[in-house]
Amino acid sequence: MFYKPSDGHGLPHNPFNAIVTPRPIGWISSRGRDGHDNLAPYSFFNAVAYTPPQVMFASTAGKHDRHFGKDTVANIDETGVFCVNIVSYDLRDAMNATSGSYDAEVDEFALAGLERAECETIACSRVAAAPAALECRLTQIVKLEGEENIAVFGEVTGVHMRDDCLREGRFDVTAFRPLARLGYRDYSVIDTLFSLCRPDEKG
């Protein structure tokens, strides 16, 4: 099968998200200028640079009551900071609970029964139970092609890792089993690893 996105795929559901998988989930916490916390997951998320460490996520849906379409992006535009919380398998239901389209006044931490902790380098809350969290300062907001598509880039200014996830000097993802986003309503979990050496590396 071949299709041009501009012509449509003719399938019951869009296969694009199922093709580009697995994708890490950026569970983004932000705080508005008014001090109100927000928490929402984004599956268009990844790290984009080592030095300095930088991440990005993209928002692809809009809300009529907020500039930039989403509470998360509006908050980040107002305050210039955000935090990426890593989603473990144990936090899957809480993450899903925060994925709804709620009014700006709704506190997703409370809604999902999550304990919050204050970040160290930025004025923002983070998910206390998350296996890792990346404190970020906004570097740029980029309007992408399409009516509601916006990419947010940030430099990582602080890194939290749960002590029980550090094993022999490594951050061991099998200790918490990170959640990955697939297509449709599907998710997966990482619990098996294998290593490969590059051709120019010695084992």
Concise synopsis of the structure shown:
The chain is mainly β and 203 residues long. It has helices at 16-19, 71-79, 92-97, 108-111; strands at residues 23-24, 26-31, 37-42, 45-49, 54-59, 81-86, 116-118, 125-127, 132-143, 150-161, 166-167, 170-171, 179-181, 187-189.
Describe the structure.
A hairpin with a 4-residue loop joins strand 4 (45-49) and strand 5 (54-59). Helix content is 11%, strand content 35%. The chain has a single domain (16-189), classed as Pnp Oxidase, Chain A. With 203 residues, the chain is mostly beta strands. The model has no long low-confidence stretch (mean pLDDT 94).
Keywords:
7-stranded antiparallel β-sheet; 3-stranded antiparallel β-sheet; Pnp Oxidase, Chain A; 203 residues; 14 strands
What is the radius of gyration? 18 Å
The N- and C-terminal alpha carbons lie at a distance of 40 Å
The overall number of domains is 1
CATH architecture: Roll
H/E element string? Answer: HEEEEEHEHHEEEEEEEE
Q: Got a strand count? A: 14
CATH level 3 topology: Pnp Oxidase, Chain A
Q: What composes the largest sheet? A: 7 strands, antiparallel
